[in-house]
Write a structure and sequence with these properties.
This protein is 72% helix and 10% strand. The protein has helices at residues 3-95, 99-113, 125-129, 135-143, 175-194, and strands spanning 117-122, 147-151, 162-165, 170-173. It has a four-stranded mixed beta sheet with strand order 2-1-3-4.
């Protein structure tokens, strides 16, 4: 082998070794890049999954909270509807009761609401026509220590119940007024009876 051939062979061998080293280094770097990319993509995908799970939990929590609120509101609406129906039925029962029950109720209301002094009790024309003969006497026998009640022969334009007129002021004892005044108490009592938790 000539000197030139030796030099060329040495250059070829050195070149081959350098190429092998370059290729080996490049393959290592490529593997390291792939490993880093896999690790980074695993971290990124784990974060995406974690974020998605957190959002799903939050949405689930919000949905459950909304569903609970809707359920609670519907329950309260149903509860109020039942109570309102019972109150309306009680009102109608009193308003349409037979004379004895109706005037017994009016008697009790008058005794409770009458203020001190003389007053005129006004009824509507229907109630005046069916007024028990001793109604005025019966009321006055219970309130005589503080009041004197005189029933007017002139009807008042009211649906039911009565008005106590003291001249300077009136006390509205129509059934609607009495029910409205006691409505929160009535509803509270009905709620306790019907919806014990």
């Amino acid at each position: 082998m000539t000197g030139l051939e030796k030099i060329i062979s040495k250059i070829a061998q050195d070149s081959e070794e350098k190429c092998s080293l370059i290729i080996s280094t490049a393959e290592k770097e490529a593997e390291e890049i792939k490993a880093r990319a896999r690790a980074e993509s695993k971290i990124a995908s784990d974060k995406i999954i974690s974020d998605a799970e957190e959002k799903a939990k939050q949405r689930n929590s919000v949905s459950k909270s909304n569903a609970d609120t809707i359920t609670r509101n519907r329950y309260l609406e149903a509860k109020n509807a039942i109570i309102n129906d019972i109150v309306s039925a009680a009102y109608e029962e009193i308003a349409n009761a037979d004379d004895s029950k109706y005037f017994s109720f009016l008697h009790a209301i008058c005794v409770k609401y009458v203020a001190e002094g003389e007053c005129i009790l006004y009824l509507n024309s229907r109630d005046l026509a069916r007024l028990p003969s001793k109604f005025e006497i019966s009321i006055n026998s219970e309130v005589y220590e503080k009041a004197a009640v005189q029933i007017s022969k002139t009807p008042k334009n009211i649906p039911n119940g009565f008005i106590l007129d003291y001249g300077d002021f009136e006390i509205d004892c129509t059934l609607k007024s009495v029910f409205d005044e006691k409505m929160s108490l009535i509803k509270e009592m009905l709620s306790e009876i019907l919806f014990k938790d």
